[in-house]
């Protein structure tokens, strides 16, 4: 029987490009690399870098690596900008030839830092998730669920790289001493399910949990709740609660970092929407602009009214110069700008029914308008996952999710001050 969760939305699938292969995007003229996790530049304007060479690093040794050969033109304001040049040899790490069982937790963590491996959904460095899970994790969840109705690349990656994904999970299972993993995947992804089952030789080590196609199934908290019937307590991460949840693409990057010494400098992105000339699944270099990504799809069929990064449900509108990061998953170009309608709340309760976290947005927003800290705490506003289901369900077309985000931000700010 397929698993599900309370609330959420059953949306029309828009994954018409699911059968397409993953294509490598062309070399961008310039990449603009966002500095994350406290990383500081290790290069300066005028320096020459090779593909795979370190351009930034934090105090723990986690690295950001150049996806191109070229010249650094700027290294400030939270970004490193590199103008690419053709030619030049990429650099990488030597493959790990030792058996996985001989590697210590420190060995695994160090390789993840050197290869710059981050979560494909969250953008959080995997070594940090591993540190939170150490000594606490009981299970690893291989998250093969798509994150948005337009998203298609996860299913494609699973179908093409099932064995590598499972092996990536086994590396981390050994690192944090976890004996079992479970694969979470939608029940209608027949080809991907078949590939995963063929890749798993020991069903007691890695099992499969089928999900009903429902948004936002890819959320870590909801995935854990649906599989194990456990709620992650407010203020805690899934890793601290005993569950290390990692996306299929993240585990593929983990495997490549160990088996081939390949640093993470690229991201697989679904490019879709009715304004795009050709829908594609592209492997793009970190820091590539949205304009150059759409150029790989032959541009636009019609002038786009909106370009949304992150998917239609929880994404944000971006300009042509916005650059992809290692957590960019979906780029959607729509022919018309979404209607800006903000009617009066009719207290129908549809936002409550749609919320997968069991929150009451209509009541929370009233408490927020009154700046009632205690009421917001009682209604658990901090549990909002910003999935956008409430806005989608609202017949008055109110920006419920946006206002929920403001309410949560205000509450968390007051909480850091000590509350009231």
How would you describe this protein?
The strands form 4 sheets. Strands 1-14-13-17-15-16 form a 6-stranded mixed β-sheet. It has a 4-stranded antiparallel β-sheet with strand order 2-8-7-4, with no helix packed on it. The protein has helices at residues 105-114, 126-133, 153-175, 190-199, 220-228, 248-259, 290-295, 350-354, 361-369, 373-378, 389-393, 400-416; strands at residues 22-24, 30-34, 40-41, 48-49, 54-57, 63-65, 70-76, 79-84, 139-143, 180-186, 206-211, 243-247, 266-272, 280-285, 306-309, 316-317, 330-334. It has 420 residues and is an alpha/beta fold. Helix content is 29%, strand content 19%. The protein has 12 helices and 17 strands. Helix 1 runs antiparallel to helix 2. The termini are far apart. The longest helix is centred in the middle third of the chain and has 23 residues, at 153-175. A hairpin with a 6-residue loop joins strand 15 (306-309) and strand 16.
What can be said about this structure in brief?
This protein is α/β, with parallel strands linked by helices and 420 residues long. The chain is built from 12 helices and 17 strands.
């Amino acid at each position: 029987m397929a698993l599900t969760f309370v609330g959420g939305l059953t949306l029309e699938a828009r994954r018409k490009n699911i059968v397409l292969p993953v294509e490598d995007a062309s070399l961008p003229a310039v990449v603009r690399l966002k500095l994350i996790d406290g990383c500081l530049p290790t290069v300066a304007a005028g320096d020459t870098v090779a593909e795979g060479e370190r351009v930034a690093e934090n105090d723990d040794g986690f690295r950001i690596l150049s996806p191109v050969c070229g010249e650094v033109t700027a290294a400030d304001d939270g970004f490193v900008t590199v103008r690419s040049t053709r030619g030049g040899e990429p650099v990488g790490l030597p493959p790990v030839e030792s058996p996985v069982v001989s590697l210590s937790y420190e060995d695994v963590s160090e390789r993840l830092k050197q290869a710059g491996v981050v979560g494909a959904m969250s953008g959080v460095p995997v070594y940090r998730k591993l540190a939170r899970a150490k000594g606490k994790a009981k299970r690893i969840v291989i998250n093969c669920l798509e994150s948005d109705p337009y998203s298609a690349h996860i299913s494609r990656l699973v179908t093409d790289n099932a064995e590598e994904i499972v092996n990536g999970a086994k590396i981390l299972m050994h690192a944090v001493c976890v004996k079992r993993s479970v694969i979470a995947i939608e029940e209608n992804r027949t080809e991907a399910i078949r590939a995963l089952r063929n890749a798993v030789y020991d069903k007691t080590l890695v099992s499969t949990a089928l999900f009903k196609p429902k948004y936002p199934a890819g959320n870590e908290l909801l995935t854990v709740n649906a599989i194990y019937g456990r709620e992650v307590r407010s203020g805690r991460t899934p890793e601290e609660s005993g569950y290390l949840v990692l996306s299929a693409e993240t585990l593929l990057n983990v495997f490549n970092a160990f088996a081939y010494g390949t640093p993470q400098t690229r991201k697989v992105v679904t490019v879709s929407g009715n304004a795009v000339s050709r829908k594609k699944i592209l492997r793009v270099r970190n820091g590539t602009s949205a304009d150059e990504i759409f150029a790989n799809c032959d541009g636009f069929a019609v002038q786009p009214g909106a370009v949304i990064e992150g998917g239609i449900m929880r994404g944000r509108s971006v300009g042509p110069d916005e650059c992809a990061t290692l957590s960019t998953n979906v780029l959607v170009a729509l022919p018309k700008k979404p209607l800006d309608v903000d009617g009066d709340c009719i207290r129908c309760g549809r936002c409550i029914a749609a919320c997968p976290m069991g929150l009451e947005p209509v009541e929370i927003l009233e408490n927020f308008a009154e700046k009632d800290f205690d009421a917001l705490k009682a209604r658990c506003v901090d549990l909002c996952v910003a999935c956008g289901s409430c806005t989608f369900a609202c017949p008055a077309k109110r920006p419920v999710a946006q206002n929920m985000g403001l309410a949560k931000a205000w509450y968390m700010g007051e909480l850091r001050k000590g509350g009231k």
